[in-house]
Design a protein that fits this description.
It comes from Microcebus murinus. Its main location: cytoplasm. By secondary structure, the chain is of the alpha+beta class. It contains 29 helices and 11 strands. A 4-stranded mixed beta sheet has the order 2-1-4-3. It has a 4-stranded antiparallel beta sheet with strand order 5-6-7-8. A 3-stranded antiparallel beta sheet has the order 9-10-11. Helix 2 crosses helix 4, helix 5 packs antiparallel against helix 6 and helix 11 runs parallel beside helix 14.
Length: 727
């Protein structure tokens, strides 16, 4: 007979004694269990003791987390969090440097536990640490020459403990003094500083900027980009990551009017070329956190274009009209300008109208009206002027080549540029906040100071080339744009390392090649639209859906490792969830690290019967997406969030590792509840499998035309003499 679900078998250690094997009744109060353990070792004052995990985490057992204890767990009897916090609070104020160092080391380790952190913070421990950083470092620095390692370790442990305590979100960041900020900034500004101290100082500055508007202003006064740049030129990737994170935080929190100024400073300090040389092209792999920070920097840089993208052109603004005149002048400079006599006014207007038509504007009389739509607004005109000035030969060739055509196959440069700019902004998601977990940065955008403009210049030439290959007319404009978008997207997925490499990728993606790719992906899809084939599809579809359902449920039985997102992405925590083989129970539980392969059912302590599930909700409807915090603002995380609602007010919240796992789990859970599987993955799988099955069934009918209607039934024969009785 299996043991009751509330009984957990554990081992409990106590220094100097043999470990005890115990059965813990989860229904009993934790204090009663601790008293029972203390009585077994004849220890008085059981209220001064607590249980904690004996593994590397050393986390305390509390009434909130006691359900996480699994069979076979090794626990340790130790002093209570309150006692431990009191003792450490006194020890870190010791006059002995060795005792202080040892106490700070213990504090840095214990501060990761939220139970201990709460007790230490209740003793005003944060204020004590900040005072030690503000005033104590001067006293330590006097000893630095004779005991430099001790000083570095002491400060490092102090800052580590501070970072861990603040990560729990118990204390507001707004409570810190300018003196403390100045001191942390001074550690970053020094050229020769211990790596661990520098790393933690950068982490503190990043958190200050992200969590408090007032602190952003104070940090921005103390830290300049010039002081951060040298840290990027080192060889330590973790320091480089934290440095870019601080730059991103300053960029993200800067007021709108300050961002462009900051971007100009970044350009002056050659941040892009330094990152390209010392990070992207360094002789080492880029880890996920660095890739995320580079992605954030890329997004924030492109978001500077949002203002121009959403600015309409003012047809009465002469300075803006002059840009259009400049485009005309560069393209048709060889033609003589009309004289200024009063009689030539009509002639000049006629010439301008003719030239604007050649330039491909929709409104030939007043092309300024073409730029009143947002997006792309004035950004399109900026791109056109950049192309005309920096790639003048290509610009003149495209304009003159198309303006001289008489066969209605001319590619309208003006209209194309406006639509292309809008399309590129959509591809790069200009104006959207960076994703919380995304690390999709493109190295080629770090190879040029005007990377978006150069990106446009390459793509407008591609558009002109594709237009000619398609022999398109104005009626085919949208078709051409769709092909160009596919070409650009396919080239970007290869992550070219430079703009030249991107250009060469596009050369290989001609219109003919795109047609071949489409044909191989669709395989004559049009042939499957006849009525007999559609009837066959309807007959086969239930079988295919059942196959997909079984695949989804099998994947749920295998299980998935989910990541717990918190304010600081660098401390990943994992949990695992899987469906029982009989499809009746969901097993789940926390993990120390990301698992290699499946996690056994018996190691997942928590259970949720499928019969108790009331509903599955996704996106904004999820309880954890309605909570106050940064995650609910993030579109990418919203798209990966789903929750299981059960009992009255209980829920199990998920954030899928990627879109594929999100579809697998939402489909599987809906299948368990007897609902339709509605994900994009199901639609794609259904299309693929239906197509394959139909092709297999039609193999014998190759090169035979399938009629739309069944053949007519022949007339009855005049006699049945050809029928024989076989009996």
């Amino acid at each position: 007979m299996p043991p009751p679900a509330d009984i957990v078998k554990v081992a409990i250690e106590w220094p100097g004694a043999y470990p005890k094997l115990m059965e813990i009744d989860q229904k009993k109060p934790l204090s009663a269990i601790i008293k029972e353990v203390c009585d077994g070792w004849s220890l008085a004052n059981h209220e001064y003791f607590a249980l904690q995990h004996a593994d590397s985490s050393n986390f305390y057992i509390t009434e909130k987390n006691r359900n996480e204890i699994k069979n076979g767990t090794i626990l340790r009897l130790t002093t209570s969090p309150a006692q431990n916090a009191q003792q450490l609070h006194e020890r870190i104020q010791s006059s002995s440097m060795d005792a202080k160092l040892e106490a700070l080391k213990d504090l840095a380790s214990l501060s990761r536990d939220v139970t201990f952190a709460q007790e230490f913070i209740n003793l005003d421990g944060i204020s004590l640490l900040t005072q030690m950083v503000e005033s104590g470092t001067e006293r330590y620095q006097k000893l630095q020459k004779i005991m430099k390692p001790c000083f570095g370790d002491m400060l490092s442990f102090t800052l580590t403990a501070f970072v861990e305590l603040m990560d729990h979100g118990i204390v507001s960041w707004d409570t810190f003094s300018v003196a403390f900020i100045k001191k942390i900034a001074s550690f970053v500004n020094k050229s020769a500083m211990d790596i661990s101290i520098l790393q933690r100082s950068l982490a503190i500055l990043e958190s200050m900027v992200l969590n408090s508007h007032d602190l952003y202003q104070k940090v921005a006064q103390e830290i300049t980009i010039g002081q951060l740049i040298p840290h990027l030129q080192g060889s330590d990737q973790e320091i480089q990551t934290y440095t870019i994170a601080v730059i991103n935080a300053l960029f993200l929190k800067a007021p709108d009017e300050r961002r462009q100024e900051m971007a100009n400073i970044l350009a002056q300090k050659q941040l892009r070329s330094i990152i390209l040389t010392h990070v992207i092209r360094a002789q080492r792999a880029i880890n996920n956190e660095m890739a995320h920070q580079l992605y954030v920097l890329q997004v924030l840089t492109f978001n500077l274009l949002e203002d121009r993208m959403m600015t309409k052109m003012d047809p009465q603004d002469q300075a803006q009209r002059d840009i259009i005149f400049e485009l005309r002048r560069i393209a048709f400079d060889a033609e003589s300008e009309p004289n200024n006599s009063s009689g030539s006014m009509e002639k000049r207007k006629s010439m301008y109208t003719r030239d604007y038509k050649k330039l491909g504007f929709i409104n030939h009389v007043n092309p300024a009206m073409d730029f009143t739509q947002t997006p792309p607004g004035m950004l399109a005109l900026d791109n056109m002027l950049y192309f005309a000035k920096h790639h003048q030969d290509a610009y003149i060739r495209i304009v003159l080549e198309n303006s001289s055509r008489e066969d209605k196959h001319e590619c309208p440069f003006g209209r194309s540029s406006i639509e292309l700019t809008k399309m590129l902004c959509e591809i790069l998601k200009v104006g959207e906040l960076p994703g919380e977990t995304c690390n999709d940065f493109h190295p080629m955008f770090f190879t040029h100071d005007r990377s978006f403009e150069e990106f446009f210049c390459i793509c407008i030439q591609l558009l002109n080339k594709t237009w000619k290959e398609m022999r398109a007319t104005s009626e085919d404009f949208n078709k051409v744009m769709q092909v160009v978008k596919e070409q650009v997207m396919r080239a970007l997925t290869t992550k070219p390392s430079s703009l030249d490499q991107f250009k060469s990728k596009l050369q290989n993606l001609s219109y003919t090649e795109i047609l071949k790719i489409r044909q191989s992906e669709r395989m004559n899809q049009e042939d499957f639209q006849s009525r007999p084939i559609l009837e066959l599809k309807e007959k086969i579809q239930p079988e295919i859906l059942e196959l997909i359902k079984q695949q989804r449920l099998n994947r749920l039985v295998e299980g998935t490792c989910f990541r717990k997102l918190n304010a600081r992405r660098r401390q990943d925590k994992f949990w695992y969830c899987r469906l029982s083989p009989n499809h009746k129970v969901l097993h789940y539980g926390d993990l120390e690290e990301s698992p290699q392969g499946e996690v056994p059912h018996d190691s997942l302590q928590d259970k949720l019967p499928v019969a108790d599930i009331k509903a599955v909700v996704t996106g904004k409807d999820c309880p954890h997406m309605k909570e106050k915090g940064a995650l609910k603002q993030n579109k990418e995380v919203l798209e990966l969030a789903f929750s299981i609602l059960y009992d009255s007010n209980c829920q199990l919240n998920f954030i899928a590792p990627d879109k594929h796992e999100y579809c697998i789990w939402t489909d599987g859970l809906n299948a368990l509840l007897g609902k339709d599987m509605m994900s994009d993955l199901t639609r794609n799988d259904l299309d693929t499998l239906l197509s394959m099955e139909i092709k297999l069934r039609l193999l014998d009918l190759e090169n035979i035309q399938i009629p739309d209607a069944p053949p007519p039934i022949p007339k009855e024969p005049s006699n049945y003499d050809f029928v024989y009785d076989c009996n």
